[in-house]
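== Sequence entry ==
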Amino acid sequence: MQKSAVEDVNEFRYLCGLFFADDLVYQRKIPLIVKQSAFTGTDPDQLSEILSTAQSRISVAALDNNPVAFRCNFLSAGAVSVAECSYEGTIAAKREAQGEKLTIFLPTQGNAIFSYPKKSIESAPGFATLLEGEPTTRSLLVGPRHHLALFIDQAKIIGSLTHMLERTIRGKIDIHPYVDLTSNAGLTLQHLVKQLYRGLGDDGVLRQSPLALASLCDAVTFLILENCEHRYSDQLARDALAPAPRHVKRAIDFMHEHVSSTISLSDIAIAANVSIRTLQQGFRQFRNTTPMAHLLELRLVAAHDELSDPRSTSTVSRVAAKWGFTHLGRFAAEYRKRFGHLPSQASKA
């Protein structure tokens, strides 16, 4: 008998022993908001509007003006979205600016090629394709094409890595673009994405289970970060063998507890029961960052989460002040450096 999405998540949690910070969504009883958008058409301009975001436009054209058709169903819940898409004909596309999501294609029919200035990435059945949202010189979808697609906010990817490494992470992670779908990791990835798609559909169990949804989204994110090669893979392996000393962990715990308070480097050192120099050396050696840079990261992520929350009515200035940013211009600059867009452009999808 096939297991439900909730049973799969509980089994995954038991086997991996992972701590899911997003469980707080369930504990706070926050209502779950799922957005569903379905499109069918033959107009490339309409498809361009569907695939584009405010930060990253994707232009679309029919190759040699031959007829094309598409059918897409998108389901979005916070930082993670999933879609089922089918295409007929040959479609040329171009991403014109850096995107804000990691995209994972799970194709079952047809090919696609994503071309960049120095490389090309092919998407074909048998392999998942991972794209970090870089601008393309050209992309081709050769129909008939069918795929499931998973979209994860880059902020969630970076936040998860920051949590795993307990230090500040910025920019692209240069993830390997392929996962063999016949491997254990590939089979599990397929299974979790299908559960997400089914569970978020009409009357899906995940619509009434915010804890299961948060855990499943985290499960997919951690599965990718722990099984796909990227810039921080070696550091994840080293950190698993060499955990940070107690004073670094005490400092990090203190920062989490006082993330919205006015605290100094001296306050953090006192809480960790070490000198400032020892504290700084510990962070450099075990977290490859500084204590204040780590605190800045925690505050930026907290501000981003609140600005991206569709239930939040707070202004940018109020959110900045709440999370310890006294200079609005400096906050906007740091926020843009971290997330790739201004605070006022935070998506509330």
Observations:
- The chain has two domains: 5-227, 243-345.
